[in-house]
Amino acid sequence: MKMGIPEIELNSGYKMPAVALGTASYVTPKAEVVQAVLHAIERGYRSFDTAAHYGYEEAIGEAIAEALKCGLIESRSEVFVCSKMFACDNHADRVVPALKKILQNLKFEYLDLYLIHWPVSLNPENGFAYPIANKKHLVPFDCKGVWSGMEECQRLGLAKSIGVSNFSCKKLEDLLSFATIPPAVNQVEISPEWQQNKLVDLCKANGIVVSGYSPLGSIGQIWGSDRVVSIEALKDIAKAKGKSVPQVILRWAHQRGVAVVVKTFTPKRMEENLDIFDWELSEEECKKISEIPQSRRNKGKGYVSEEGAIKSVEELWDGEI
């Protein structure tokens, strides 16, 4: 029996569904994304994750407008939309204008959750170009100034909640040392092969929700892999439970209190990814998952260069690799 999607309370006072549909595709035609979001709403999804860099904000806004028009939802408040600011806008004076542009694309009055996509900054001249051809465009990241702009977004009512993405423990602790409004969410890579126990514990201790992207390995991304869904320990648990490996992974994340962002545009998989709430993994099964060898997939190498502000992957992640 399928259950409704549970919600997780944020430190901002708002609630976020425990599972979001991800849209990090880059190559999927806009019309297909519109249809995917509509299919997801029909199947019970109410949370949608995107980013300025993905280029799908207009498609998501269009799908939600259509869902309202045809009665799939009754009001904008029934959906939770998260978007992320690209590095070219990670400058104190560009944060609010960047969010206003996102809202213009979505045709929304507010965003439910606004995140700093990466703790790096690009010269605005670079724009959304990626890979970054001119590494000298990788300039120092003024976290204090940028976060001040994020806080202004929340005060203005443009974003109900604010947060970060791809922040290490050290970067998160630095942010908490000066933040007037703490981040509600830290969205990071989380999977059985990159469990981030130290970061998850730090976030829980500070009332920050961890949102895990790439729980199933992000097949199709440059850095993605199907390795995690091929792990024998997970296959054994799935067989014993009568579930799929992706369902076991998503259930494992949910039991840890981690929200998940799962990208699929296939209706059948959308349904499968929600069938995780009326059963549990045993303590022994969780222990087996905890013993899986660890390896970060998304190292953020595109933001690292001897010519730029961040010289190494170790520096980007503060040794947490």
Characterization of the model:
The chain is globular and about 55 Å long. An eight-stranded parallel barrel has the order 3-4-5-6-9-10-11-12, surrounded by five helices. The chain has a two-stranded antiparallel sheet with strand order 1-2. Strands 7-8 form a two-stranded antiparallel ribbon. It is built from eleven helices and twelve strands. The longest helix has 13 residues, at 30-42. Helix 1 links the parallel strand 3 and strand 4 (47-49). It has 321 residues and is an alpha/beta fold. The termini are far apart.
Number of strand elements: 12
- Percent range for helical residues? 25-40%
Report the sheet-strand fraction: 15-25%
What string gives the helices and strands in order?
Answer: EEEHEHEHEEEHEHEHEHHEHHH
Strand order of the largest sheet: 3-4-5-6-9-10-11-12
How far apart the termini lie comes to 39 Å
Tertiary shape: globular
Average of pLDDT:
96
Largest sheet: 8 strands, parallel, barrel
Which class best fits the helix and strand makeup?
Answer: alpha/beta
Number of helices: 11
Radius of gyration: 19 Å
Task: List strands and helices in order, with pairings.
Blueprint: E1 7-9, E2 15-17, E3 19-22, H1 30-42, E4 47-49, H2 57-69, E5 80-85, H3 95-106, E6 111-116, E7 121-122, E8 138-139, H4 143-155, E9 159-165, H5 169-178, E10 185-189, H6 197-205, E11 209-213, H7 232-241, H8 245-255, E12 259-262, H9 267-274, H10 283-290, H11 313-316
Parallel strand pairs: 3-4, 3-12, 4-5, 5-6, 6-9, 9-10, 10-11, 11-12
Antiparallel strand pairs: 1-2, 7-8
Which key features would you list for this structure?
321 residues; 35% helix; eight-stranded parallel beta barrel; single chain; alpha/beta; 11 helices
